[in-house]
Specification:
The structure is a single chain. This protein has three helices and five strands. By secondary structure, it is an alpha+beta fold.
């Protein structure tokens, strides 16, 4: 399996990954390069995190997150929207 496939599968199952996780779980050392290639087809966000190493020195590292794709268009604009049902016998609003 290609590194891109491994990381994409991880992102779809877990939502995000750091270079530490990529190395520990999959022995992938150049996660940024893999993410660069994945971005050709997927929307991946980078957040820079800050922490400390075992010597107490400040470090920064990236967390890559797969952004959810927009829902597929179905042609039905009422799905998932709150509609006013005041013209119906019930007094409640309902989610369709």
């Amino acid at each position: 399996m290609r590194q891109e496939d491994i990381i994409f599968q991880h992102l779809t199952e877990h939502g995000s990954i750091t270079p530490f996780e990529a190395f520990a779980d999959y022995h992938i050392t150049r996660l940024a390069a893999v993410v660069f290639r994945l971005r050709r087809e997927h929307d991946i966000e980078t957040v820079i995190l800050h922490g400390y190493d075992t010597n107490g020195d400040h470090i920064q590292y990236a967390r890559y997150t797969l952004k959810e794709p927009p829902p597929a268009a179905t042609g039905d604009d009422s799905k998932g929207k709150v509609i006013n049902t005041s013209d119906l016998p019930s007094d409640n609003n309902t989610t369709v």
